[in-house]
Predict the structure.
Amino acid sequence: MVSRYEEYLSFMPDRFGRFRASESIATTGNFLNVPIVNIWVNLLKDKLKKAYPALRFRERKFRFVPTIDIDHAYAFQQRSFIRTIGGYARSLMDGDLAKVVHRSNVLLGIEKDPYDQYDYIIEIHKRYGLQPMYFVLFADYGKDDNNVTLSRLAFRQLIQRLNKVGNIGIHPSLTSGKYPLVFDAEIKGLTEVLGHEITLNRQHFLKTIFPVTYDILIKNGITDDYSMGYATNTGFRAGIADPFPFFNILANKTENLILHPVTLMDVTMRDYLHQSHEEAIQMFTSIIDTIKALNGEFVSVWHNESFDETGRWSGWRNVYENLLSYAVAMMNAE
């Protein structure tokens, strides 16, 4: 489970080239939502303690790591003239005059950009004493990689602002997975903006190919990756609720890269599982309780655009505030 042996084998990928949750042994065995490795380890620990009563184990505590993906820093602002005109054209072709007016009001400064939720994001984490991780897509425009124009001053200032209140990681483009030199350019560009090295990574769309993806990360100085999860399902992709070192099966060695399992994402709950606000709250409560009982690490994934109360994510701010409140309470519990 932890080596992800099954992902080295032949499989039928989804449209993004990802390993499908439905093909995993955890899904077919109906234990995707069970951190089965932690359970097995605890059983082994109990056996060892009975055999060797003087044996001592490291004390572990429940940890919560909130992370924010920035795929689209702004909905309308900081985009090139051509892309702005294209946006207007698409809205007109769709007959969406409301979006034409909305875009115009944002560009004229009458309304705030709907994806500009950073004041709220910073405030809510500060309120709970949390320092989130921000994974920034710093890539040229492409089919599935469509953040704002990289050279825009406001975008660069945003990254520098977030760097003061959290930890910044790279969110590499899908294109970079095929062309390592593209990843090299993206991480160098983001490093230049930040003024320091980048060691944190989350794959765009959570796409990882074993062992190619991790070979690229290691060569570029990444020490911690937060991609070990499924976009389509909640649960434990590697069957474990703790960070663990990447073991390269082909090279038969443990690498200097720590993989942090991701168990919950906003898009998974809303767009793939079609959950209501109440169902989402019940789901993350159950997941947190499971990880808390095993003193593991809970990593949540949210997006800046998911805090927009005027669009399709209306009401999900409250879901997130409930998540922060519950996770922090579990960290503070004896």
Remarks:
- The radius of gyration is 21 Å.
